[in-house]
Amino acid sequence: MQKLAHTKIIATIGPSTWDDGVLLEMIDNGLQMARINASFADFNELERVSEQFRRIAPKVAIMLDTMGHKIRVTGFEEERVLKEEDKIVLIPETKTESPAGTIQITYPDLHKYVNKNNKILIDDGNIVLVVEGIKAKEVHCKVKIGGVLKKRKTVNVPNVHLDFPTLPEKDVHDIRYAVEHNFDYIAASFIRNVEDVEAVRKEMGETDTKLIAKIEDTEGVEKFDEILEVVDGIMVARGDMGVELPLEVVPIKQKQFIQKCRMAGKLVIVATQMLESMRENHRPTRAEVSDVANAVMDGTDAMMLSAESSTGKYPLEAVTVMNTIAKEAEKALKPQAVTGRTDASEETDAMCSTLVHLVETLGLKGIVVISQTGKTVRSISRHRLKVPIWNVSNNVKLIRQTSLFRGVVGIYVKQIETDRDKLTAKVAEIVYSQGLLDINDKIAIISGSSIKKKKLNSILEIAQVKDLLD
How confident is the model at residue 1 (pLDDT cuts 50, 70, 90)? Predict the structure, then answer.
């Protein structure tokens, strides 16, 4: 019986998860990728955490999540209490402490873009300000909904287009580091359009590191289809999206985005507050359990833990609970065949679609894909089969990257045999020796063709394990 769910788990690494032992336990319980959040991690932490993972868990993928154009409050250390009807002035960031009645923000040009009666949301909308007027670079506001304001909390201005530089300097340095040090994924924050993607790609240069666009605001939602075409995956970042858009729209967008990603054969991640209460409690709420289960049933490839694993009290329990919920939800599902074209060939997509029927009618226990690009693996995975997809490659980075797709398990083979029969026998022996197959089980095997001067390059074969091991 498979221990881990087909749906993958990403965890943000922070003080709660810096210990080697905690990380190794999390990996045993389903952690598939480590996220380093550059909004809070300085360059030294970026370096330290990435080196730690390569040392203790070279098979686990690493993702840099860029800071992006996120506006934050600054200029004070002690938390402040903002009461309803209070007057407050937002001013550009300086090197001194904010005077009484003012709050510094990290976006110096806010006064150019907001108007009277615009709403300004702080700390994911927990505090709401209303603009009353502009004086020089000062934005004068009244507190509509008060609360406790802590340092470095986020600022959102819904329905107002703010002009940002192409990429913050910190993002440029972080992206270059991630590429130079062979990170598997870069998640780019606040992607609004194709031009934002191009700016990140330019800094990435020629690399096999994959790019994920985080969809977080109205512009990104409106340009989703265009963005999807030019990235390797999407993160449905529900935190800022839920501030920028009406809350009731977010679950609908989540379902739509997941379906579009699957049709294109591209990675899709659901993120933010999935088990938020587990920052303080060892058990999730019933609503959170439903949220995780629904993301699985929507068809996501992966789900992400944020503060639950970075600063929460129960990071290991959060991973374990998420894996348990996902396994149970997957039991209730049937394969979810989709249409649409991936970046594989038309013939490969058609062949992979037939597996939905073959797995069911022939009782196949798994699919072996001997892969050098990952295209076939992605084409199969999007149908959300209930059997594992074993991706065989001599490229460790490719294995880490494809293992984020739903149902995919990487198998590293140092030397890819030119003799196809020897290679398939070797792979069958590896899987069988791990207790994942019985001798009488049938599996599908997809590999390259041996036909010379071939234009199409895939063979699909059904075989019984005992025949492969003879």
Answer: very low
